[in-house]
Amino acid sequence: MNSVLVFIEQHNGEIAKVSLELLGKAKELAEKLNSQPAAILLGFNVKDLADEVVKYGAEEVFLVDDKELKDFRTLPYTRVIVELIKKENPAIILYGATTTGRDLAPRVAARIGTGLTADCTGLEINDYTLKDKTYKDLLYQIRPAFGGNVIATIVTPLHRPQMATVRSGVMDALEPDSTRIGKVISLKVELKKEDKVLEVLERAKSEKTAEAVNIEAAEIIVSGGRGVGGPEGFKLLEKLAKVLGGVVGASRGAVDSHWISSAHQVGQTGKTVKPKIYIACGISGAVQHKVGIGSGTIIAINKDSEAPIFSYAHYGIVGDLFEVVPEIAKQ
Amino acid sequence: MNIIVLMKLCADPKKGTMKKDGTVDRKKSPPIPNPYDFNALEEALKIKDTSGGKISVIFMGQETGEAKDMLKDALYRGADEAIILCDKKLGASDTRATSYALAKAIKKIGKPDLVFCGMQAIDGDTAQVGPQVAEELSIPQITYVKEIVEVKKNTIVAKRLIEGGEETVKASLPVLLTVTNLANEPRLPSLKGMLAAKGKKIFVWKVDDVGIDEKKVGLAGSPTRVKKVHWLTREKSDCKLAKGENASELVADLLERMEKDGIDLKGENNE
After folding, report:
1. How near does any CA of chain B get to the CA of A310, in Å?
2. How far apart are the first and last CA of chain A?
3. Rounded to an integer, what distance in angstroms lies between the CA atom of residue B234 and that of residue A107?
4. What does the alpha-carbon distance between residue B86 and residue A319 come to, in Å, rounded to a whole number?
5. Which domains does chain A have, with CATH numbers?
6. Domain assignment of residue B29, yes or no
7. Which residue range(s) make up the domain with B171?
8. Distance separating alpha carbons of residues A42 and A13, to the nearest angstrom
9. A251 contact partners, CB below 8 Å, separation of at least 6
10. Are residues B126 and B98 in the same domain?
């Protein structure tokens, strides 16, 4: 009752990093609410992971181990979580803002009839006053919106649970501690025929994920945004980065478009970098992006002379990056 | 095939300017169609091209010039009809209330086989309306679609993006899909399409026309409240812009300016 519940995302027995980060946050929020951090773990043959989840701070783990839950599928997972919500009445449920979390959470929210805030970068417990009525201890769901130009604080005053998806890499996971004690509660949930109308035929990893990108330590970053236009455009940036001895970065827009993996992302919701030279190609440059760059020299290349990036870049070229980038590599 | 495409107008994040009350100044930054919605429409058109069917486009919002332009554009590209779901009572709806209203409009059109949405809107970036509409319609969903592999009378196979890869799923119809911009390069309206669009209609529906329960829309029907919106400010520019007629001159000028300041592109500061 009244717990702060984290949806533990796992694929093939591997827990998503963001789920562990959320356990750390859940513990902090639960302390303020005088309740406990809990987790829900779904999958097949994932019992061992429950102990892992306890090490990262969950005091209760609801485990639903079923062959039908082996691969993530929206409808079976929704059924299980909705049943648990009805039984346990958690105050808050947190999900990673992954393709899985962003697929699942709205479905659960709609079925329960509660609110949901996407892509949070901050979570706090505070009171909220609406029409002279004060709601105690609500979850403040803080998120960037409007291309990173604004930071909005959202609350769900009347509906429970309060739900949010949270960006990866924003919260800090606790150090795993094997002396932590948690209760593992196994549940059985009956799925219905209409939950099984979709099947996963194949799951494939793309080759690109193998690349380890260490942009946090890089001295030169050639970074691309939506203006790069697609994965092919990033190949141009890679060439320039190679010539300069740097690495490739990306704006949230490019990462959201799945042109490049999130390991490359720079900005408030991504990584903070400290290069000496930062070349921004086709990045409009929301303030949010600026926050991630640090104090090195910023060179902006953009077709749009009114792009916000020019307001804080040190040098700029108003022009077509597809012509300019190869030219820099040449000169 | 009865195909629905949901479209949205978005404030342009690149031109965002704010009024004193903290809301977007729509006069200075007129709304633009959500680009992903054209990827959604394109997938619908591809299916119509091969298997036939009727495409209805639904837009919820005010009946403005921009809205009509967007919907005409969709009709010129090959959609069959367009609906503006427009009512003051729908104002201030959050994603939950919006999804309920859109689902009501879809139900009025009839039982859909396929519902298409963009993967998310570029202003709110929530990606929540698609799945919530699917729940309202009690149909499965396939989000982040990068490719539709096969559509049959009762089933669909599609590839969707997941972290670090992709998965191929098979679902029974009806189904709702949210489409990424990797799925296709949307066609543009053609002259032929414009001529073919003669006689195609844009309908305007009110809350009462589709049987929406007023308590479930607008602020009253929205579980979430915006507590505060904080605009991040922009600083004045002292950016040194390169001059030149072409890429080669621009780059040469840039490097010269940087050299004067003692910075070279290898990251060494010579001072």
Report:
1. 6
2. 65
3. 37
4. 41
5. 4-196 (3.40.50.620), 207-330 (3.40.50.1220)
6. yes
7. 2-216
8. 10
9. A223, A224, A225, A226, A265, A266, A267, A283, A284, A285, A289
10. yes
The sign of the torsion formed by the CA atoms of A169, A173, A175, A178 equals negative
End-to-end CA distance of chain B: 69
Are residues B115 and B15 both part of a single domain?
yes
Q: For chain B, what is the domain count? A: 2
Residue B253, CB-side half-sphere exposure with 13 Å CA sphere? 16
Q: What are the residues whose beta carbons fall under 8 Å from the beta carbon of A282, sequence distance 6 or more?
A: A224, A225, A226, A227, A228, A229, A233, A301, A302, A303, A321
Mean residue pLDDT of chain A comes to 90
Q: How many CB pairs under 8 A join A and B?
A: 267
Closest alpha carbon within chain A to B177: A103
pLDDT, tens digit, 9 for 90 and up, residues A203-239: 987 644 434 456 776 788 999 999 998 888 999 998 9
Residue A149: which of B13, B131, B157 has the nearest Cβ?
B13
Identity (one letter) of the amino acid at A278? Y
Per-residue pLDDT averaged across B73-91, rounded? 97
Residue B160 to residue B183: CA distance in whole angstroms: 10
Pair B52, B180 in one domain: yes
Task: State both tokens at A44.
Answer: 């097949």
Q: Residue B178 and residue B37: Cα distance in Å, rounded?
A: 9
Residue B16 lies in a domain: yes
Task: State the amino acid at position A2 in one-letter form.
Answer: N
Return the closest-CA partner of residue B176 out of B151, B150, B142.
B142
Find the CATH number of the domain harbouring B174: 3.40.50.620
Identify whether residues B116 and B188 lie together within a single domain: yes
Residue B134 CA to residue B116 CA, distance in Å, equals: 10
At A181, the amino acid letter reads I
Residue positions counted in chain A: 331
Here the ipTM equals 0.87
Nearest by CB: B239 against A118, A130, A315: A315
- Contact list in A for residue B172 (CB cut-off 8 A) is 197-198
Q: Is A56 helix (H, G, I), strand (E, B) or coil?
A: coil
